[in-house]
Amino acid sequence: MTQNLERAGTPAPAPPPSSPPPPAGPPDRRGVRVWMILLVLSTVAVFAYVLPPYLGLDPAKATVPLPPEFPTKYAMLVGHILFGSIAMVTMCLQVWPWLRREHPAIHRRSGRLYVFAGVLPSVVLSFYLLVTSFGGPGWVGRASLAALWFITTLVGYVRARQRRYQEHRRFMIYSFALTMEALSGRLLANGLMLAMGMTPGEIPTEQAAAMMTAAEASAWLGWVVNLMIAAWWLDGRGSRRKPGAKTKAGTGTVRGPAATAPSS
């Protein structure tokens, strides 16, 4: 009985320590390839839709109104499309993980092209185009898009120059989301018109109000939804950050295995 009491008072042996979690496996390269292929195909689709009417430099084929009181609008429109096309091509290079990892110098040079030969001149010309269509359908949404596109891209570039790479990547991902409005905005506009029984490009006068509603909605949803997806993706990436990564308070720079240095 004494032995039983001694056994009863003996604490249970501690369970063996749990084994450490398995190390993170290599990135899903197949998923990255699929993502890059879809991005390139989307960019080609935008070019196929936007560029043909302007290849011959014929103002009569322009897809937007050209009021006679703004004789330089066509030239500004062609420049906006040209610089926007450069932004989309260099954007594909910027988000390519293999290029960023294996050839950082090319990543930096294409990043400068993205900023100074793509986004910024395209945005500046878009402000002129907005002036020529002041008060039209979707004007406020497009003006907000242009302002945010300019700000996120410029701040992302400045953060790279400051070597605050985590903030640089965050703002450049937002810039990427706004660049992709060239695709999502057109898909939404045409989709809304088809849902309302209209054929894009052939809008009867009695359906002008419905067309303006579709234009207003797509001018906002085309980039707001993109930003929401980008924010969701960034938050998800942050929650899966490796435990060894530490962020300096107030700087946004990272020390540890999660640190990266993709500067534009």
UniProtKB/TrEMBL annotation:
Presence of keyword Repeat: no
Pfam families recorded: DUF2306
Transmembrane segments: 34-54, 74-99, 111-131, 143-160, 172-197, 217-234
Stretches with biased composition (Pro residues): 12-26
Keyword Signal on entry: no
Keyword vocabulary terms for this entry: Membrane, Transmembrane, Transmembrane helix
Matches recorded under InterPro entries: DUF2306_membrane
Stated name of the protein: DUF2306 domain-containing protein
Stretches for region Disordered: 1-26, 239-264
